[in-house]
């Protein structure tokens, strides 16, 4: 469904050319990456960086595998909060308020809400980020000026794969790619990113465009 693709795509953008999981989610297909001592040290650095990253605001470019482009702005405040707004004429938007991720699908004129933590991509909104335990590193790649890490859920490896792409020295999150369970890849590039941002108080409050005079939202659905 469109709103679920938006969630997994934006919450840390999404891919790996060779999935480390079977399409049926078979846990036996999960293959953790074998890391050298130097690579494990990089993982520790990345984990520390992500935990220190309390807030970030950026423009983004979203690209799907067919080449379709969407631009917008993203605001993240850990733990649990995020706002994604697409540039006009696109009127879709997403707000994570700390408990739920609320998605407005303007084409359907409908709100959908899912619990925070329902996607592998949402791990970056956690209060304590750990690249171990319920998260498995399936691929590590170092290049002259960047590091890529591919991640899957240990419990549900078939749910998708998230690849985080960092500039190095200094370490900065610049891109992410998502491979969804249907094998579709979507990437998000961060542009003009600013860390340590203070956002207006109502940034992470979802207000439905369907909000009527009664103060209650209409055409809303909740996915548990």
Q: Explain this structure to me?
A:
With 224 residues, the chain is mainly β. The chain has one domain: Lipoprotein localisation LolA/LolB/LppX (outer membrane lipoprotein receptor (LolB), chain A, Clam), CATH 2.50.20. Helix content is 11%, strand content 39%. The chain has two helices and twelve strands, in the order ααββββββββββββ. Strands 7-8-9-10-11-1-2-3-4-5-6-12 form a twelve-stranded mixed beta sheet, covered by helices on one side. A hairpin with a 4-residue loop joins strand 1 and strand 2. The protein is globular and about 55 Å long. The model is unreliable at 1-8, 10-28 and 213-221 (pLDDT under 50).
In short:
The chain is mainly β and 224 residues long.
Largest sheet: 12 strands, mixed
CATH topology (fold) name? outer membrane lipoprotein receptor (LolB), chain A
Q: How many E strands?
A: 12
Strand content: 35-45%
Q: What is the CATH C-level name?
A: Mainly Beta
CATH architectural label:
Clam
**Overall pLDDT confidence:** 80
**Structural class, judged by helices and strands?**
mainly beta
Number of domains: 1
The CATH homologous superfamily is called: Lipoprotein localisation LolA/LolB/LppX
Weakly predicted, low-confidence segments: 1-8, 10-28, 213-221
Q: Which overall shape is indicated by the principal axes computed on the Cα atoms?
A: globular
Following the backbone from N to C, one meets helices and strands in this order, namely: HHEEEEEEEEEEEE
Q: Into which percent range does the helicity of residues fall?
A: 10-25%
Count of runs of 4 or more consecutive helical residues? 2
């Amino acid at each position: 469904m469109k709103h679920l693709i938006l969630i997994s795509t934006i919450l840390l953008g999404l891919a790996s050319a060779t999935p480390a999981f079977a399409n049926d989610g078979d846990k036996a297909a999960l293959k953790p990456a074998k890391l050298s001592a130097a690579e494990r040290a990089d993982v520790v650095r990345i984990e520390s960086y992500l935990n220190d990253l309390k807030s970030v605001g950026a423009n983004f470019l979203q690209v799907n595998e067919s080449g379709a482009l969407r631009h917008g702005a993203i605001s993240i405040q850990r733990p649990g909060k995020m706002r994604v707004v697409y540039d006009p004429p696109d009127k879709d938007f997403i707000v994570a308020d700390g408990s739920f991720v609320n998605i407005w699908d303007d084409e359907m004129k409908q709100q959908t809400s899912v619990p925070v933590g329902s996607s592998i991509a949402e791990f970056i909104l956690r209060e304590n980020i750990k690249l171990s335990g319920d998260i498995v590193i399936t691929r590590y790649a170092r290049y002259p000026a960047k590091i890529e890490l591919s991640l899957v859920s240990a419990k549900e490896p078939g749910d998708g794969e998230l690849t985080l792409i960092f500039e190095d020295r200094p370490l900065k999150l610049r891109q992410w790619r998502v491979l969804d369970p249907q094998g579709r890849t979507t990437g998000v590039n961060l542009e003009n990113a600013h860390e340590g941002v203070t956002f207006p108080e109502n940034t992470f409050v979802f207000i439905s465009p369907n909000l009527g005079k009664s103060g209650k939202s209409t055409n809303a659905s909740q996915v548990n």
